[in-house]
Amino acid sequence: MQTATQLEHEVNYLDYKGKYKGIFAWIFSTDHKRIALLYMYSMLTMFVVGVALGLAMKLELIAPGKTIMDPQTYNAVFTVHGVIMIFMIVIPGLPAVFGNFMLPIMIGAKDVAFPKINLLSWYFYVAGALLVISSVLFGNGTPDTGWTFYAPYSFKSGTNLLPAIFGAFVLGFSSILTGLNFIVTIHRMRAPGMTWFKMPLFPWSLYGTAWIQLLATPVIGITLVLVALERIFNIGVFDPALGGDPILYQHLFWIYSHPAVYVMILPAMGAISEIIPTFSQKHIFGYRAIIVSTLAIAFVGYFVWGHHMFTSGMSGTAQYTFSILTFIVAIPSAIKVFNWISTMHKGSINPEAPFLWAVTFIFVFMIGGFSGLVLGALATNVHVHDTAFVVAHFHFIVFGGVGFAFFGAIHYWFPKMFGRMYDKVWAKVGWAFFTVGFLTLYSPMFYLGMMGMPRRYYDYLPEFHAGNILSTLGSWVMTFGLLIIVINLFRSAKNGAIASINPWNSKTLEWTVPSPPPLENFDEIPVYGEKDGPYEY
Amino acid sequence: MENEKHHIVPYKVYIYILVALIAMTFMSIGITKINLGEYSVLGAMIFATLKSILVLSWFMHLKFDQPFLRIMVGFVALLFFAVIFITFLDYYFR
Amino acid sequence: MEHVAQHSDPHYDQEASKLGMWLFIFTELLLFGGLFIVYAIYRFLNPEAFQMAGHELNITIGAINTIILLVSSMTIAMSTSALQKKNKGLTVLLLEITIMLALIFLINKYFEWGVKFDHGIWPGSEHLLNDMGHGEVLFFGLYFVMTGLHALHIVIGMIIIIVALNKVQKGTVHADRPSLLENAGLYWHLVDLIWIFLFPLFYLIH
Ligand code: HEM
Ligand SMILES: [Cu+2]
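^ thats the input. predicted complex w/ copper (II) ion below
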């Protein structure tokens, strides 16, 4: 592969020949860019499995009664689907791929602070994924608890839960190590002159995210250990028969898993905050407000976990408190939406694929957010809890949020990462199919949930038939869009037109190095002067 | 940021700290021997907190490190207590 | 430990590895933090049972172990000072003492658990499940999990200290590159910190 750069003498990271050959040149590489691609390919593999399971569920739900699988299989399918999508796709998601690739370059560093730990965290990822898969392949039955592993069923179920729980634990370790690395990198390795308030917003969002990864993940780690010990030794901590309180399990689980939602969404917001100013050719509106709202989300997001438990039987005081706090945490998200829209105002908009993804991100994220307020209000929550409404809500947030931002980010940074441009027409076609399919797939679920269709059932009452047919059709359209996107990107990585250093005319540092970047990114560490900044258009 | 000079703590300071820690251990045992009812937990926890502050500041060098490390430690402690507090909003009022 | 392995990296940054170690310590604190939450809730729900069960534990052994850990914390803290003063012999000696103390702690713990086992008390044991109340089951469940996890950390800490000791002897850890030893020290103090809370919570309820 050739690069169109002035620094022709620098071998880019894709072609670089090190000590090892072939695949070992990748899986032993501590280069943050190669690790990012390792993550991307392993995540893609798991994503294919997750999507296939999702499609299978939708096919089952195309008609009432048994269509293609029995109830126990359906339980296993939504469990594995949830575990894969949550722990292996959206939690590592943007940090592991674009964080690893772009963070060091965006702050003017040659790599992350601890490259070996970075590679180690990818190994943990793979190990965790394999463990989860092994729970499917071996033992007496695939886990059927749902990705939430709720007690007491998680230690009563006869299925092969231990490897899955252990796998989730190991995946958590991977996430912690990534977070640790990013915090140290941001503290210690910013280019000279790049003060905290000159740092681009994507690194800022990674910083907030990293703190959550660091401080929330251990809680689920120990909770999963307790469930495992409960299964093996009967220690009693969550077993009502021995005096334990299953609701305490829910507390501990959500003390992690609500903040985890922000591990997913904050980097997504960060990527959007890079894309919007670039394609509006305007300084981001309210740079500091975005930073403050990032940190506020990360912090307040810790104290809202109880909104998943309104119907569990916890005290009224706790319910009111969690409800109020949930409303408060919505404010900083709204601030960001306001800032993005204002950035576009009077900008010179360039509607390339990344921009389209960013705008649709804002759209689906707002739908997800508003439905979140419906769920955060006590009275309505009781009504729609554990219905298809919830499924629609979190797919709009996590899939709509993270998925759209991920696709936006890959279309934005693709020329930098591979040194080639993708086919822009196909990119837009893929986006159109995906968006239409996504909305058709999940919107009906809001309605179905409101009407009372419960989630996690392989069957439903006949009156829900129409909505479900529509939803299943949507899943096909969306998958078609997905195929177009993936094929287009793969083909372009090989044969696309050579990309220039800065095809979108962006101002952040990653667009000053060759495409693809050389091994250590910079010949000389850049220096930020008084007037320099990430968004000075 | 370079040339952050290291502070070398004299040996005898460590010995003083150790003596204080051991003394507090005995005091916390003593206080739970007296019947203070509910307050004996409180007493024991106060001593534990004081001890941990000594360990953090001297043994773990926080006293001589950059302020942001101290802020981080304080922040983590605060976060943890806030989480406990909120959890108790459920159990205390149930 | 991998999180200090970057010392062989040409871009050596002592502050970075210290910060990394602190961040790791935070995760450990929250790992135990989860258990402390469980403990707090169950003690709140079963105050009498926790008191009764607490009487089963031996304050003397607990206190001895506390002092052992405190002393070991001091010796490892001194060893960094010794390293900075370029006194290699003393550094090594202090580290060896630390490791010995850790070992003694574990031996005590072994006997302590042994006594419990002799009384028929272990997680899920017949005696515990059939003859004791729910509160006691929870108390001992937590006792074994928390002291067990703590003991596991002692073992990990010992391994790190042994590695550090080796490198001090070989001369790859020295006054200008003390990160590994400092981080081993930080980790060891963490283990001490956790015990400072475990001791009153389990042994001193009366
Ligand atoms: C082709 C894409 C997808 C389809 C067709 C799909 C469809 C579904 C369906 C039908 C359910 C089960 C609802 C029920 O019966 O309770 C479900 C559950 C779930 N999905 Fe997806 N989904 C897709 C992508 C994703 C993605 C990208 C994520 C992660 C962000 C995700 C996360 C989840 C989670 C966490 C659950 C809950 C599992 C549980 O109940 O334990 N899904 N999905
Ligand atoms: Cu939540």
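Chain A has one domain: 27-512.
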